[in-house]
Amino acid sequence: MKCPVYPIEKCLEFCHDIFEVGIEFTTTIENLLKRYNYRSERTKAFSYLKSSAIQYGLVNASKRQVSLTHASKMLLFARESYKKGEDYAMLKMLVFLKPYLFRNLIYLSDCKPITSVSYLKAFFRDEGVTSSSIKQLMASFMQNLSYCSLIDELGQIVITERSRSLINAIRNKRSFEMYCNEEFDNLREKIKIQVPEVVRTENIIIEEIGAEKMHEFIKNYNANSKNYLRLEIGDDALILAKTRKGVNQKEIIKKILDVLSEFRYIS
Fold it and tell me: How buried is 109 (Cβ within 10 angstroms: 0-12 exposed, 13-18 middle, 19+ buried)?
């Protein structure tokens, strides 16, 4: 697919999932498939979502891993004081215009009504988009316009004075890319991010044991470790370990398993 099937906001949800299941803004394809309960990365919904995020410049991908770009980090984690400013609006615009088809459509539709279904269908059809994909691309395009505050009540593209030079640069691919790179470097200096604290979870399956003994163990363990660890037990004898930021969870879990082994609570 040569144009993003999914809108920017949907791709940002995908980026947030990468952040939540990953380490240092990077995770494996395998982890994401587990997150979405997909068996294969060839699953259409997953492959289209990943492809869309890449085309917006929100994700970098290799054969086995995906990672967030500076653009997605800024959109996700910009401090609240920046999100209503002109710089943040320009960042959204740069992401929106990165895919060629969306960029070209904005250029051709500048100051013209574009809510006409027939107009949009004709544009995508002339660009070689298959009929089965046109409807979804139209929906993504319109959602992106709304996300970037680029459409008025009359269905016309609304371009800010700052964005005008960006639109004008579309005529020349090289000058557009240079302009975008310069703007993006400028925004990286201006927009400060604040990454939220993440509580990661790890599941430890144990043998089914007496609930009373297990709760007694948890109570005693928490009495000494409550500052950095919380243990919960589910109906199927599952321990859920939650650690705070900065705690080496693997070491904590190993200690728990060692103690449980001593008590013969696990095999």
Answer: buried
